[in-house]
Design goal:
By secondary structure, this protein is an alpha+beta fold. About 25% of the residues lie in helices and about 30% in strands. It starts with a strand and ends in a 9-residue tail after the last strand. The chain binds adenosine-5'-triphosphate and magnesium ion.
């Protein structure tokens, strides 16, 4: 087992005008499951391929344990990689597919059989060892691909979207299997996905990338509770955090016809920058509904932001209300989670107030987090 260190690792593709990965700095702990996540083209695969030795590192370095592997060929790095297109050899049995890399490495037959049988047991593939890949389900094939990596007993597993060929239900099952398998084996793992739910459910820590730049590395909990900037706030969480730009006033920010108290230090920091507005972030589950429904028009309408309900999604246990609100003279989309037994009518008006202590404040000018 080993740690993995990206030390300002940078990749500039030939002819590229800016780095695909720019000064990446991450320390992955021994036995840790680290997930790299971000939108398409942000540099996830490039980062993984640099670690694998499949892509040159143009600046900075990469270490596995205390070995500098920056310029080592892939075969000398003691890693095993599982790709999205894991392409099993169709003419070979499951056992031969799993043992192939060991055979190439000249390991003796008895040892190969022992390792393949062990891996098959772990992956629940024992009864399929003599079959060809075409006689397996998608999930089983995916496990064979995992098996190929496991039998090599590497210091580090690298996985690039290994679940994206599976249907939605199988993805959910398999992601749990991979996460628990990794914990059992305790092998340091770097896992790439563009799916933030996968990232949040599988990772010990999650690293969010955007345009080749690392935004935040944190536990899933901290990532959700304290996103470091507007991008991470909007990217992590589904449905996404509501991010609304509002004017700063004495004592807080104007939110509809109420002044919402947000962290004073955050407001002061914004004012010190010369900003007149801030972005207030509120997760869908962090709104309190000020009263039942109303027409929103009477002059003693309840305090809070008036939301006109456009669409409701009933999910059973709870539901999501997709509505619109007038903030600062503009119409904004707002998403609110409500209880499964209190789903409002389409077209009705709700008055909502962000729950105290559950607001996030970001600078309008830089996007950085200002609240604690
Ligand atoms: N071989 C290459 N030559 C030139 N540019 C490349 C090459 N491979 C990737 N890029 C560019 O580098 C950037 C990062 O690509 P990368 O494949 O790392 O993204 P990604 O985060 O894995 O995206 P996806 O989620 O779509 O797989 C992109 O802008 C891409 O166009
Ligand atoms: Mg990719």
């Amino acid at each position: 087992m080993a740690t993995v260190t990206f030390d300002k690792a940078t990749r500039i593709y030939p002819g590229g005008d800016k780095p695909a990965v720019d000064g990446l700095e991450i320390e992955v702990g021994d036995g840790e499951f680290l997930v790299l996540v971000g939108p398409s083209g942000c540099g996830k695969s490039t980062s993984l391929r640099m670690l694998a030795g499949l892509e040159d590192v143009n600046a900075g370095s990469i270490r596995i344990g205390d070995r500098d592997v920056t310029h080592l060929p892939p075969k000398d790095r003691d890693i095993a990689m599982v790709f999205q297109n894991y392409a099993l050899y169709p003419h070979m049995t499951v056992a031969d597919n799993m043992g192939f890399a060991l055979k190439i490495a000249g390991i003796n037959k008895a040892e190969i059989r022992k390792r393949v049988e062990e891996a098959a047991k772990i992956l629940d593939l024992t009864e399929y060892l003599a079959r060809k890949p075409k006689a397996l389900s998608g999930g089983q094939r995916q496990r064979v691909a995992m098996g190929r990596a496991i039998v090599r007993e590497p210091q580090v597993f690298l996985m690039d979207e290994p679940l994206s060929n599976l249907d939605a239900k199988l993805r959910v099952q398999t992601r749990t299997q991979i996460a628990s398998l990794q914990r059992r084996l305790g092998v340091t793992t770097v896992y790439v996905t563009h799916d933030q739910v996968e990232a949040m459910t599988m990772g010990d820590r999650v690293a969010v990338l955007k345009d080749g730049l690392l935004q935040q590395v944190d536990s899933p909990r901290n990532m959700y509770d304290k996103p470091t900037n507007l991008f991470v706030a909007g990217f992590i969480g589904s449905p996404a955090m509501n991010l609304i730009e509002v004017p700063i006033t004495d004592g807080g920010v104007e939110f509809g016809n109420t002044v919402v108290n947000v962290a004073r230090d955050a407001i002061k920091a914004a004012a010190d920058k010369g900003d007149r507005t801030v972005f207030v972030g509120v997760r869908p589950e962090h709104f309190d509904i000020a009263s039942g429904e109303g027409d929103g028009l009477s002059k003693d309408a309840p305090a809070g932001l008036a939301i006109t309900v456009n669409v409701v999604e009933e999910l059973g246990a709870d539901g999501f209300v997709y509505g619109s609100a007038e903030v600062n003279g503009e119409t904004k989309d707002v998403v609110i989670r409500v209880g499964g037994r209190s789903i409002p009518e389409k077209g009705s008006v709700l008055h909502v107030v962000p729950r105290a202590g559950e607001t996030h404040v970001f600078a309008s000018s830089s996007g950085e987090r200002l609240s604690d």
